[in-house]
Design goal:
- The protein is an all-alpha fold.
- The chain has two domains: 76 residues, Tetracycline Repressor, domain 2 (Orthogonal Bundle), CATH 1.10.357.10; 119 residues, Orthogonal Bundle (Tetracycline Repressor, domain 2).
- The chain is 56% helix and 0% strand.
- The protein is built from ten helices and no strands.
- α2 packs across α5.
- It is globular.
């Protein structure tokens, strides 16, 4: 479907999206930062993530994304252009990598945890979790895996020194995804009531050992 279709009457937004791991969304309201809440960009991106990870690319339509987001298809075109351009944004992890990796190596473990948790709470969405839903798919959704590998895992490996850099980078990425899955599964549990600093106290040491390559 082309990006020029419009909806006469947009559907009400799906409130179940508040804790939907397919979009990386977490429980609560959805301020996406900046003026996204006012413009509808955040709702569109969450709906697009759900659509693209759940269904083959050819089956996803702008009207369907618009109905899920509670906006008109013309608003999606205004903000993102075409379906191809919207998918390219959904499949991009570059901005997440820039934030996650913006720390020196000796502080990176704690920074990774703090950045992930704070991003989830500020933007009400996990910056990495959508890659999980591309597993086992061979259509356009496989682009999420290749982008994640290039923009997250390989960039992380470049920051590491010593033996097994690629393996350690993969394990670090896996631990971050695992943390996101855990927080999403227990969205109203103890993790939701715990400060980012305390979560970093508990989770960062294991990540830092992988970053430094320490075996003791």
């Amino acid at each position: 479907m082309t990006g020029h279709a419009t909806d006469a009457a947009p559907a009400a937004p799906d409130r179940r999206a508040a804790s939907d791991p397919a979009s990386g969304a977490t429980a609560g309201p959805h301020p996406e930062g900046g003026d996204d809440a006012a413009t509808g960009r955040g709702a569109i991106l969450r709906a697009a993530r759900r659509a693209f990870v759940r269904r083959p690319y050819a089956e996803v339509t702008m009207r369907g994304i618009a109905a899920d987001a509670g906006v008109s298809a013309s608003l999606i075109v205004k903000h993102f252009g075409s379906k191809d351009q919207l998918f390219a944004i959904v499949a991009d992890f570059g901005a997440a990598a820039d934030e996650l990796l913006a720390a020196p190596a000796d502080e990176l473990g704690r920074h990774l945890v703090l950045t992930l948790v704070r991003s989830r709470r500020v933007h009400q969405a996990d910056p990495l979790l959508r890659v999980v839903f591309s597993l086992g798919n061979t259509d356009e959704r496989s682009l999420l895996r290749s982008r994640f590998r290039e923009q997250i895992t390989e960039r992380l490996a470049e920051l590491l020194t010593g033996a097994d850099r690629e393996l350690r980078a993969e394990l670090i990425a896996g631990q971050l995804i695992g943390l996101g899955v855990t927080l999403s599964l227990h969205s109203d549990g103890a993790g939701a009531r715990t400060s980012p600093e305390r979560l970093a106290d508990l989770c960062a040491p294991a990540l830092q050992r992988l970053i430094t390559g320490a075996t003791g």
